[in-house]
Specification:
Elements: H1 2-12, H2 16-32, H3 37-56, H4 82-94, H5 100-103, H6 108-124, H7 131-138, H8 142-154, E1 158-163, E2 171-177, H9 180-196, E3 218-219, E4 222-223, H10 232-239
Antiparallel strand pairs: 1-2, 3-4
Helix pairs in contact: 1-2, 1-3, 2-3, 4-6, 6-7, 6-8, 7-8
Length: about 240
């Protein structure tokens, strides 16, 4: 019943604000168990298609000819240390951001971007970083980060919820991982990390006591020989015939 109602509401939506509200309702229903994984993914794909159609039909009003936006053009960002950025994206790509069967579809830079997205999703449940922050952390350019996320969305690995605002700057998109294989991969990685960082206090009390030095002959780095026992001659005298 809820799935059919959401499907009809998506077809009747006419604005991007309505699409964003429906997207929130879909994932709230998925979190509460009303929608299954397949139903939520099907609705997310339908939302993406309807959002693209609505976006294509929007025509800006009041913008002077020859200018695409009221906002000033974005300055081109360049990494201050290209060698460090290259090493960072290679390290992120080689750290296993997703299962090998999925990772084979992407390049090194794209895998670095998806690693940043996956870490945010594993920690917070959703990635709300702006595209510039994702690109900077992954060591890639802004356009490559956008391309990687859009390719993953096209493969059905994640969804993108746009947060547009009329007359002011848009909020960063919300990215959610919906691939079951990727989600299981992130859960295994999180469990392994918890085992690695387990505090030492949790394993105290199952071994022997801490060892403390008892040799009083060692004082401030110098060795003092023990004095000979005074009872030794008495023992020797007793054993003589």
């Amino acid at each position: 019943m809820f799935h059919a109602a959401m499907k009809a509401a998506i077809e009747d939506a006419r604005t991007l604000a309505q699409m964003d509200e429906l997207s929130r309702q879909v994932w709230q229903g998925h979190g509460s168990g009303v929608l299954g994984d397949d139903e939520a993914q099907a609705l997310a794909e339908r939302l993406h298609g309807r959002r693209s159609a609505i976006r294509d039909g929007i025509r800006p009003v009041g913008i002077p000819a020859g200018r695409a936006s009221f906002f000033p053009p974005r300055a081109r960002s360049v990494s201050p240390d290209r060698a460090a950025s290259r090493d960072r994206r290679r390290l992120l790509a080689c750290s296993g951001p997703m299962p090998p069967a999925l990772a084979a579809r992407f390049t090194t830079g794209q895998l670095a971007v998806l690693r940043i997205v996956g870490d945010e999703v594993a920690t917070k449940g959703v990635c709300g970083l702006c595209i510039d922050a994702i690109a900077a952390r992954a060591g890639v350019c802004r356009r490559l980060a956008q391309t990687a996320i859009r390719l993953a969305e096209g493969d059905g690995l994640l969804t993108i919820e746009e947060r547009r605002h009329e007359g002011r700057k848009n909020s960063p998109n919300l990215v959610r991982v919906i691939s079951r294989e990727w989600q299981a991969w992130m859960r295994r990685g999180a469990a392994h990390h918890r085992r690695q960082v387990e505090p030492a206090a949790t394993i105290q009390g199952i071994g022997c006591k801490p060892i403390h030095p008892t040799d009083k002959g060692i004082i401030t780095g110098t060795i003092r020989l023990a004095e000979p026992s005074k009872k030794l001659p008495e023992r020797q005298s007793r054993t003589r015939p």
